[in-house]
Every structure is written in structure tokens, then in C-alpha cells.
Amino acid sequence: MAASGAALAGFVVAHLAGNLQIFLGQEAVNRYAHFLKSTPGLLWSARLFLLAMGALHVVTSAQLNREARAARPEPYAGKAYIKASPASRTMFASGLIILGFIVYHLLHFTFLKLHPQYGQLTDALGRHDVYSMMVLSFLNPLICAAYIVPVFCLCLHLSHGLSSLFQSLGINTERSRAGLAAGAVVFAWGLFAGYAIIPIACQLGWVKLP
Ligand code: HEM
Fold first, then answer.
1. Apex 31 CA angle, 27 and 100, nearest 5
2. CA end-to-end span of the chain
3. Within-domain flag for 209
4. CB 2 within 8 A of CB 64
5. Ligand 1: residue whose CA is nearest its atom 24
6. Are 118 and 137 in contact (CB under 8 A)?
7. pTM metric for this prediction
8. Ligand 1 neighbours by CB, cut-off 6 Å
């Protein structure tokens, strides 16, 4: 679970770096999207790897959950959370929201099923105009919310998940635990800021249609 989580977190960082090119303008975004699509070997290896890591993460989380229940078949008489953070208590719910978001997101931007007209957008070089597709989408405040809320859940999930990862890999020691947990929180909320700023920038007109 830790290894698949680390791989997925790596994707989330790389994807953010790609998406932030929206601040560099239409040419940068479309060149990058075109590069990915015109190197199918790279694209499909990454897709298959991600799919395998996503499936492994879901299957191992279900297994862990079963083991935890088996270890304590009788529920506790009362639920008094002493050290559990809101992030750790909502891992299952935030995981489900992330899964739902990925389905929505793929239908929206990759398979172009929700707004098929975005598939017709092309730039001066005849490439798919991914830049304009993003800006047009995020002019709609409901679509902005449909991204910002799940990305919030993703970062909540990551803030706890990374601490668990350090624990699983045995990096955590008595001395380093607090520092690593704080690092995980800063990393997760940094990611949230990076993802959320994209729809917000389109709404506020910082990023405009070409
Ligand atoms: C503001 C937030 C985000 C924006 C603007 C964004 C943008 C995009 C765009 C434009 C594409 C399609 C690229 C193309 O077809 O040319 C894409 C694909 C994708 N995004 Fe995002 N994304 C965001 C957040 C996320 C998050 C949080 C995740 C994961 C949890 C994610 C996972 C994916 C995946 C798996 C693909 C499919 C890649 C492929 O196989 O082609 N995205 N994203």
C-alpha cells in the first residue's frame, strides 16, 4: 500500500507541474499535451503503470481494513479519538471521493464526454487546444467547485497517507516523527494550493482565453 501510494503521489506532483504551465500560456500547455500524445509508448506505459498502482492501492487498503476488523471483531464500546486526526479518520471517505473525481475528470478532459465541443478546439498549429479547454471549463464556477473540493480531499488524504508511508518504510524514528509529519502536511497543502490556484486564476481572469 505504501509503495503504490508513493507512486500515485509522484504522479500527482508531476501532473501538477504539467498543469501549472497554464501560467506560461497556450503554447506551453499545448506543446506539452501534444508531446505526451505523440509519444504513445511513454503515454501508455505511464497509464498502465498508474492503473496498476491505483488498483494495488485499492486492493491493499481493502485487505488492511479486513485485517484490522479481524484483529478486533468487537467494536469499541465508545469512540473516543485521542490522537487520530480528522485526516486519518476520513481516509476511506476521502479515497472514495478521489476515485469518483478521477472518473469525472477523465470523462471531462481525457475522453471529452461531458463537453464534446472541447474536442474540436485547435490552436494555430492544428494541435488540440488543451489550454483553451481548461480556461473555458474553469470559467464555470460549478466546474471549479467540482475540482477544488475533491483536490481538498486528495490533500487531506495525502497529509495522513504520507505520514503512514514514513511509518511503513521505517523512516520514522522517535526524533524524526514530528518533523516528517509536519513535512507531510506542508507538502500536501502545498499541492492543494498549486491545484486550486488553476481554477481560481481562470475565475479571476488572471489566465485568459487566447
Ligand atoms: C486543477 C486540477 C487539474 C487540472 C487542471 C487537470 C488537468 C488535466 C488535463 C488537461 C488532462 C488531459 C490532458 C490531455 O488529454 O491532453 C488531465 C488528465 C488526467 N488527470 Fe488531471 N488535472 C487536475 C487534477 C488532477 C488530479 C488531482 C488527478 C489525480 C488525482 C488527476 C489525474 C489525471 C489523470 C489520471 C489524467 C489522464 C492522463 C492520461 O492518461 O491521459 N488530475 N488532467
1. 105
2. 43
3. no
4. no
5. 195
6. yes
7. 0.92
8. 12, 15, 19, 33, 47, 98, 102, 105-106, 109-110, 130, 134, 147, 151, 154, 195, 198-199
Task: Identify residue 92 by its one-letter amino acid code.
Answer: F
In a domain, 208, yes or no: no
**Are the CB atoms for 88 and 160 separated by under 8 Å?**
yes
Question: Is residue 210 in a domain?
Answer: no
- Total structural domains within the chain: 1
Q: In which domain, by residue range, is 196 found? A: 2-203
Q: Pick from 105, 128, 207 the residue to mutate for probing ligand 1's pocket: most ligand atoms within 8 Å of its CB.
A: 105
- 6 domain-assigned: yes
Residue 128, phi then psi, degrees to nearest 5: -60, 130
- Contact status, residue 157 vs residue 87, Cβ threshold 8 Å: yes
- Return per-residue pLDDT of the chain as tens, 210 residues: 999 999 999 999 999 999 999 999 999 999 999 999 999 999 999 999 999 999 999 999 999 888 888 886 666 665 555 567 888 889 999 999 999 999 999 999 999 999 999 999 999 999 999 999 999 999 999 999 999 999 999 999 999 999 888 888 888 888 888 899 899 999 999 999 999 999 999 999 999 999
